Amino acid sequence: MQSAILSIAQSELVMFALHRNLKSFPKILGTCGEFYAVDSFQPYSEIYPRFLRDMSWLEKAKIASSFLKLIQDFQNSQVGLLSHCDIQENNFGLTRYLNVKAIDVDLVFSKDKMEEILTQPSCQSDYECNFFDCQSECDTKNGRCTMKSVTNNLQVLCRNILYPKWPFVGLFSSKIPIKIRTRFKQILTYCRSEIFGKFSNTHLQVNQTLKELAFLLSTSFL
C-alpha cells in the first residue's frame, strides 16, 4: 500500500497511466514506490541543433508527422483536451523508428486545470498572463487574466520546433523539397504567428492546418 501511495503521488506517472492508450506517451514498464520505468528513447534534444542539417528529408518528415499526431492525441485524450505548456526539444523523445514521445509531461494539463492556472494572476498586459508556453489574454479593465488563450499547442510547436524565426534553428530551417517549399513555408509562417495562436486548440482553423501540413508531408515523396 505504501508503494502504491508513493506511485500515485508521481503526477507524471499518473499522466502516463491515464493515457496509456495514446501512442504519443511512453509505455510504463514497471513501478516500485516513487520510482518507475518507461520505454527507452533518444532525447530529441540530442539531435538539436547539431544533426538537423545532416538529416535527410525523409527523416525530418517522419519526425514532423509524428509531432503532428502528438498534437492530435492531445486534442482527443480520454480526459479531454490537454495543453502542453513546455514544448521544447528536451521534453520529447524519439524511438528508433523516429516516432515522437512526450517524455516530460510535468507541464501538461487538462482544460479544468488550465482554467485554474491561467485565471490566477493579476495583469496589465497579455504578457503578464504567461505560464511557460501557455498564455491567455489580459482583461485590462479588471486587471485579471482570462481563459481566452493566445497560444495553442500547434502554434507553439511551429514556433519552437518546426519553424522558429531566425537566428534559431528548427526542423524545417533547411532542405524543404522544391515541390512543396513555397506553400509549406507559408503555412509554417502562419502557424507560428500570434494571430494563429489566438485560435483554440480545437478550432477548425487549427485542424485544417494540421491536415494540410500532414498532406504536404505525405505528398513530398511522390
From TrEMBL:
Coiled coil: none annotated. It comes from Hydra vulgaris. GO terms for molecular function: kinase activity. Residues 9-192 form the FAM69 protein-kinase domain. Pfam families: PIP49_C. Keywords: Kinase, Transferase. This is Divergent protein kinase domain 1C isoform X4. InterPro entries: FAM69_kinase_dom. PANTHER family: DIVERGENT PROTEIN KINASE DOMAIN 1C, DIVERGENT PROTEIN KINASE DOMAIN 1C-RELATED.
